[in-house]
Amino acid sequence: MDQTPLPQINHQHETFTEGLLLDCGTVLAPLQIAYRTYGTLNADRSNAILICHALTGDQYVAEQQPLTGKPAWWGNLVGPAKPVDTNRYFVICANVLGGCMGSTGPRSPRSTGSEDLWGIDLPPITIQDMVRAQKMLVNRLQITRLFAVVGGSMGGMQVLAWASLFPEAVFAAVPVATAPYHSAQNIAFHEVGRQAIFADPDFFGGRYWEHGVVPSRGLAVARMTAHITYLSEAALTRKFGRRLQGNNALSPVLFGERFAVESYLEHQGSSFVRRFDANSYLCITRAMDFFDLAADHGGSLASAFRGSRTRFLLVSFSSDWLFPTTESRILARALNQVAANVSFVEIISDKGHDAFLLDEPDFHRTVAGFLGGAAEAAGLK
Amino acid sequence: MDQTPLPQINHQHETFTEGLLLDCGTVLAPLQIAYRTYGTLNADRSNAILICHALTGDQYVAEQQPLTGKPAWWGNLVGPAKPVDTNRYFVICANVLGGCMGSTGPRSPRSTGSEDLWGIDLPPITIQDMVRAQKMLVNRLQITRLFAVVGGSMGGMQVLAWASLFPEAVFAAVPVATAPYHSAQNIAFHEVGRQAIFADPDFFGGRYWEHGVVPSRGLAVARMTAHITYLSEAALTRKFGRRLQGNNALSPVLFGERFAVESYLEHQGSSFVRRFDANSYLCITRAMDFFDLAADHGGSLASAFRGSRTRFLLVSFSSDWLFPTTESRILARALNQVAANVSFVEIISDKGHDAFLLDEPDFHRTVAGFLGGAAEAAGLK
């Protein structure tokens, strides 16, 4: 497996020397936020849409990823004449705090000019910290109110945190395939991934870069486990079933043949380690685990949104078992409790959690329609 | 984590010097089958019930496990005055071929007197091989026909293989929480467990005993992953929810606190490595993956049971997502197609796959009732 450390690319970014006071009490300074924009900000700066990415996503929402050369990760939703139409809207997407694509994270120096990196010692980051960092970027771009904030999975958690922390700055919110808290089962899946990373001898207590290696096997196992949870059983069966495919390179003696689903997972694991940092994976999975909006509001989820004038579109997918419809329903109920403006759509799909990234016409029509209506209400031209 | 190799206990066993011709074409000789019996075989040798254990089970179905000191793993179902009543039936339970509790497996010598162990070079074992080995034991006990064969999960696969390979030797069959094939999702979960074991530097290409260690961290990660699949989300939420519990011993700096569900999983992982052999885990998960009764019968599951006079009781559990009710239904349909005698009960439980091992009164009543009726039909006193 590839052991080469991730290259450091010079991503477009803003630097905030004053730093950010994190939920844990530490000031992280300087703060760097890497981001990309698409389309044109209109004269009254009212057509900005912020896209929040998921656990292993990045800021390259609508263009080729420079490290992997892969196409835009949400190119079917965001772009010219797409549901999030960059001919009409000014789209911003930032790498999350704790990430590894140019925003401050485990690969950042501990202080300006320092040779030593944060690594695993980066103070714990919360979803709210990520959102506060994005708010600093939005302020720097001189945008007072975002027309919309849109995101799926962990991106959806950020959308919820935006609507809760900065209700006046969010005209419309689209949390997709997400939940107001991370479930015990999801924490459990994250934990086995982390344990696989910790168990890798190349982890070196989180200081692997000092040894010129990365804990690639552990990170690959973490990715493989997570990947299963992104798909539905139906999708796995349709794609692979019990089809055999070639020999088992990893253990030819014991097993001889291998299943196509195994080759697929192995590919997912090994390509992931070439684009993602293990300490970032630890940091961000932990942020998700600790996300619990109700707990942050004295046990009342509704309180997180009291008085909100934001228009919400909640979207879930019927076969998503990582963030099942029941969790979006809890959210819808809480929003109804405080008389928020909320639409809730469950998209029928057998593609599992991953559906939010795939070509799902019903989903895309729903988003386009909602944004169109909201634009009218906002008086956007 | 505990690195001590598993102690070799002298388990009760039978030896078959002629060995067994495996599905892969190799003769495994000598063959040793470790087993336990409970109750008394009646005069006409007609009251024997064979219990087939699951992936990580063993022959100690109704008594304390000698290695761990833990209570009988199916003590709520099997024992005096229990649904499988050892006052009435003669119960046999054997460690599966490929296991690590005394039957021939990766910890066995390659040949009589050899110092070298099979390890990962053990020829691949199938579910049918396990059953043929059990048949040799049953023959040695001079039992021509088993009154019943009962098993859950991988034990249920063995029950199906028994009914298919030796229909005249099985009066009644009780496959519980199982399926006629292993699904793509289940293969995928097994594969990440195996990759975690392979990634452990103490695996030493499967020859870890030569180094006086065991790949405990990899095996623990495998167990943790699998354990999540044994529970339902509802069960995890009820047991742990998002409760925090003490500090994170494994990584105090990054995470500070840890969730109760994480401590629980860690305990499951670390206690498992003290009782199970990593090569056995590889060997047996692979046997499950390759199980596909329909494929073995030209694509027709019904053909596996054509002409069968066995009475079947199929049991599934409503919240089991590892072996969901849909898969038992496929089985029921195939049995109906060949006019087999089949009852099918879905037990309503929110405890997931694990429910078959737990105190589920509906399940126990169902088994007791079915066996009582079958005993009458068989003319058992």
Automatic annotation (TrEMBL), chains A, B:
<keyword id="KW-0486">Methionine biosynthesis</keyword>
<dbReference type="GO" id="GO:0009092">
    <property type="term" value="P:homoserine metabolic process"/>
</dbReference>
<protein>
    <recommendedName>
        <fullName>Homoserine O-acetyltransferase</fullName>
        <ecNumber>2.3.1.31</ecNumber>
    </recommendedName>
</protein>
<dbReference type="InterPro" id="IPR029058">
    <property type="entry name" value="AB_hydrolase_fold"/>
</dbReference>
<feature type="active site" description="Nucleophile">
    <location>
        <position position="153"/>
    </location>
</feature>
<comment type="function">
    <text>Transfers an acetyl group from acetyl-CoA to L-homoserine, forming acetyl-L-homoserine.</text>
</comment>
<feature type="binding site">
    <location>
        <position position="354"/>
    </location>
    <ligand>
        <name>substrate</name>
    </ligand>
</feature>
<dbReference type="GO" id="GO:0004414">
    <property type="term" value="F:homoserine O-acetyltransferase activity"/>
</dbReference>
<comment type="subunit">
    <text>Homodimer.</text>
</comment>
<dbReference type="InterPro" id="IPR000073">
    <property type="entry name" value="AB_hydrolase_1"/>
</dbReference>
<feature type="active site">
    <location>
        <position position="353"/>
    </location>
</feature>
<feature type="domain" description="AB hydrolase-1">
    <location>
        <begin position="47"/>
        <end position="358"/>
    </location>
</feature>
<dbReference type="GO" id="GO:0005737">
    <property type="term" value="C:cytoplasm"/>
</dbReference>
<dbReference type="InterPro" id="IPR008220">
    <property type="entry name" value="HAT_MetX-like"/>
</dbReference>
<comment type="similarity">
    <text>Belongs to the AB hydrolase superfamily. MetX family.</text>
</comment>
<keyword id="KW-0012">Acyltransferase</keyword>
<comment type="pathway">
    <text>Amino-acid biosynthesis; L-methionine biosynthesis via de novo pathway; O-acetyl-L-homoserine from L-homoserine: step 1/1.</text>
</comment>
<feature type="binding site">
    <location>
        <position position="223"/>
    </location>
    <ligand>
        <name>substrate</name>
    </ligand>
</feature>
<dbReference type="GO" id="GO:0009086">
    <property type="term" value="P:methionine biosynthetic process"/>
</dbReference>
<keyword id="KW-0028">Amino-acid biosynthesis</keyword>
<keyword id="KW-0808">Transferase</keyword>
<keyword id="KW-0963">Cytoplasm</keyword>
<feature type="active site">
    <location>
        <position position="320"/>
    </location>
</feature>
<dbReference type="Pfam" id="PF00561">
    <property type="entry name" value="Abhydrolase_1"/>
</dbReference>
